[in-house]
């Protein structure tokens, strides 16, 4: 089974069995009925968008932007080509939900994209899939073939006169392509360097044409919204936080994996579903929304519910729903060093504050971790992050800064200890035991 | 310099995009070239660029930007080990160390017999399966504890 | 739209950016990546400013103005952001301005004074970036200085039309480079040096030869082509050290070609002629000016008295100034000869005397950007006229349909609407096909003589592009002017213009191709070709090297060697001049004299000398004036070049009058196709004039590679040759041994053999039959 646990699930219903991803299985699960209903009953483009608006579906990629509103930005009367693009470039550390959606329920994404294309009058779409999950990319290509053969894609879909063609495009190792305009550049066959906005993709997107980009999970949710109605979808979550959400739980838990729960589910419940803390240890800190989200200290986290608003109140972001759980064996300096290395490595190199700033941050944290910290390093890190944040072309600069700021804010004593004593507060053998690498069995 | 089979595969990629946007197929074409030749030589990059009607430097920009392309020869098997935070918490770094010790090489090095190249890699989007590693950019291996790694190494000949 | 910037109100059109508005009201916003001619990258972030109601600082270069917007460029928020960016730019930049070639003219250095800190907080290791060798013109020896603004990359993509530099890799390891070890070969490449805001891309010939503050900046005009680019010549110790573009939006915008930028090296060449010389007992000897002038005037008078005025002929370069050309024609006519010309590469002069006015471009250069369509006939375009081609490139990127009808399929690096490549002999027929297609489209009678012409598909595409839209133009290039069927091509182009409503004109093959007409330096007796075909007793040469500059160098050199007297006014003492010249008079190139050029659009551009003449060299107008006096001719009493100019055009004239491309009606007599091999002769960009030929750095470029015999694979096979073999190329008595080279851009049954090069100087006409066999 793909999704390890669920409460009131939608996306993860009926995904048992090796063939769950196949078209036949999807159709058995009522698949493509939403698209069929729209095309056969004469539901208008505006009606579809309204239904999505009513659901208060918020973008599942990390930013949480209302999907219906985004769709309404597309120029309805634009005479030329328009595109819908799915962002399956899932590379934010901690996030691995889209991989499972594509692995077990790819037709939900295809159907969702077809509905979106219908609503916005686009005739062509692309799904940009993270290069590292190659088997998923190949499976998606196969699912596309199935959908084309069955007449759910291509010309004159279901005899309605609606044309929509969908293709898969793979990444090849660049986190930044998860940023939507970098992703568009990448589809255009260039380096994945984010564009300055405005203009926004809705007016100047792929090949300069109006384009809407949504996350895999967002598109996958659309058929369910159409089938159950926007209002019922909203009710299954929390006000302003419609629907269920997939949470990717990783780190020091007994059963890391994906869990589909309604937004608003207590964190404690989610942690329990994931088998609780490994070895019964204490929760030291948790990154609740993917590596770019600020870290939240364990006790605070235990009081949160898993929705955009509650996590925001705790000083972090729900982001992509990637919950990285760290227990007391974690050295927070080492954890930050690894994250800082990631942002330094993945900075596209285009704009000055990010290109230069991320490398500076990493070099300083690296020095601290390796026993060469200086007394004023923590203030320096704070100052450098301030000079990066809000001054870059895309959000990577902020994403690189927030972990630095939050780790130092919440675990300042541990950093200070490291600088002063030139070693970890958590003994190295304790850290090593915490990873469980040498004690794990297959 | 690419085989007709590879060019045919590239043609299929080109067909995914509007007729005047051949350049869109460059990432796939470079991946196909690398799959055929094991790595991306300057000649291979130039060949792809020419085939797609791009400036060679534009294709080179792409080849050097995305880190799954290898611009230097690698071993028969390239093992990319994720050491990013979620993997690290559950043994990704340890797995890297274990491999280094077993193979007697460091990251970005190749075993003397040319069999295995070891790479440290960034998040592969499979943190629930941590520690994870990828063989030759294609096959993902999950939950890689010492026993699993030994099994994999025995298999890679 | 109204916007307030630092309290100043600006009215700007919709779509303007904050940067545009700031420039309008004179507020300076610091920046590196922004450049008015390039696309917006917004990557340096130096131009962050505060915008009312915006929570974060915004880049002025990329943020569109909204009505009522309030911008603060010096608020605490803005300054803090700008200082933050400056710190990031400097952490990896070497802080060794005193040893950097860019020091003193570095935007990073300048802005660091205002926005940089006193000490660095960055205590880590700096980035190391390897140097690159990208050819003889641009130095990329110090790439650690690069701040990744990507101006150079965007210039290549957007202005030069060819992406040669890119930014490879990512994150802080991003680096500007060519594709693995390649050189930068664009004929506009030097502009990247100007665009680079730091010392990463510098001029290789100039590097470390002077400090910017030691250089005096003097205004000048390019002598290299008919655009007349505005130049700044930088001078130290009476030596021209560097040439830079001077902004003139209507002429060269802010660009110059590499030929214009790097030819200055020839001004300081060891080949400069420093003293007059006369041939005594078969040997050239240095003499004083008065001796040389006496000798020349007596010898000239002797020839005239013995053989008559018409036994003297004068030939000038189209690079000569208006004043020089005027005095030369006066002198020649004063001696009783009508054999004067300034068009040495021309073959067909049958239009002379039938022109309604002075041939010119047919419109202003600045009007090109508004054209809906343009047709260029017979041109190597970007290698003949780099900046003119650049304007067409920009036009083709917007909406303009640019078509090319020429004799090779060279890549013009612009988006051509239609292109047809034919042999030189078929060029009139190809143009006639467009004329006929236009007549049919317009429902007009088919012009007489074109009844049997069959317009092909491409001709129809070109014709229809020329009948649509408001403004269209036809441009005749160097090949069309040099063709033995030049007048026919001119007539056909006029006919096409009449039928389509397009303008018609000549791009012009020299800096003074319009000015020469104005100065009346054209023949009333023998023209530039016939004066050698019918050898004269005496020749007077001004700034011209007949073995490289004439349509038929073989014929020209033979006539010169047989002549009794050859008087040569030249800045250089090398070359085959030493074999045939009897008097060598050292004259000043454009940097050492005052004078005027009239560019292709009829714009008068006067300039002054920027350095003292080399050795005993003198401005040619003065030499001619004194010769006129010594020959007791009337009208040689001017005291300045300005006085000379005022004899030709009224003082203060910006654009000359009398420009008119119409031609008395001539029959459109299309000849049948020729048989056998035909020569296609280009004038390679860096061999095109005296200065470029002697500029060492230019001579090391790919564009200056030795000529080969280029032909299509099919032609090569038909001749039983293979790629790379040595072949003997013959025309008449002359031959050249060259390597054969496959070049599919050459039309069938044609061999492309460059003119203007010593290796091909023994050959005959630039057009017509040529023989090729294995050497």
Description:
The complex is a heterotrimer of chains A (442), B (157) and C (775). Chain A is of the alpha/beta class. Chain A is built from 19 helices and 12 strands. In chain A, α7 (134-149) links the parallel β3 and β4 (165-170). A 5-stranded mixed sheet of chain B has the order 2-3-1-4-5, covered by helices on one side. In chain B, 45% of the residues lie in helices and 13% in strands. Chain B is built from 7 helices and 5 strands; from the N terminus they run ααααβααββββα. Chain B starts with a helix and ends with a helix. Chain B has helices spanning 4-14, 26-37, 42-52, 56-65, 85-89, 92-103, 146-155; strands at residues 77-82, 109-110, 116-121, 133-135, 139-141. The model of chain B has no long low-confidence stretch (mean pLDDT 97). With 157 residues, chain B is of the alpha+beta class. Chain C is globular and about 90 Å long. In chain C, strands 15-14-25-24-23-16-17 form a 7-stranded mixed sheet. In chain C, 26% of the residues lie in helices and 18% in strands. Chain C has 775 residues and is of the alpha/beta class. The termini of chain C are far apart. Classes of the chains: A alpha/beta (442), B alpha+beta (157), C alpha/beta (775). At the B-C interface, α3 and α4 of B face β8 of C.
Main beta sheet of chain B: 5 strands, mixed
Shape of chain A: globular
Structural class of chain B: alpha+beta
Number of helices of chain A: 19
Task: Note the gap between the termini of chain A.
Answer: 18 Å
Sequence of secondary-structure elements of chain B: HHHHEHHEEEEH
Shape type of chain B:
elongated
Low-confidence stretches of chain A: none
Estimated share of beta-strand residues of chain A = 5-15%
